[in-house]
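Input sequence (215 aa), recorded before submission:
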Amino acid sequence: MTIKILIADDHKIVRDGLRQMLEHQGGYEVVGEAENGRKALQLARKHHPDIAIMDISMPDLNGIDAARQMIAEISGIRIIVLSMHSDKQYVDQMLKAGVSGYLLKDCAFEELNRALKTIIRGGVYLSADVAGLVVQDYVGHLRERAPDPSVELTSREREVLQLIAEGRSTKAIAEILNISVKTVETHRKKLLEKLDVKSIAELTKIALREGLTTL
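Predicted structure, token format:
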């Protein structure tokens, strides 16, 4: 059986390399490539891949929210994160989104292939460093943790927050999300109120802290 794969990464050299290695391996068919989370979501809706290999830090729509929406909309899809980020905030967010695997980009292709086979069988695969982080957090789960502001936000508010943090104008955000300028302004106002901040700079700090975008 051929496994349909979607690749989402904002670096073309990474997408090209993954495609070549997967097709050389055999048993995999790359049905789409995306340079950002929004296009990845569109391709997932169109092709219904079995597995999406996805980066976290992508423009327009980050991998966290793209993964969350894919899992909610595409029946049976499984997602492997392939990222340079091993920070706890990224791992937590992606696992909460429901991904089936998390690998770091310095892994060998053999490990990615092993992860794919594990996930195809219905398992979950975490690279050693990520697994250690998860276990460490579990052992210390009783310690106090600061509340996560992102849990109060809707998916659309998170999208708007990312685009604001990326420096997009109100008009540009409206065009990207296919909503009115007035609706964007309403979302921005609600974000300021919900997160109890006064400026775009503070919204940007929250977006960075929550892994919605990077510097």
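Checked by second reader. The chain has ten helices and six strands.
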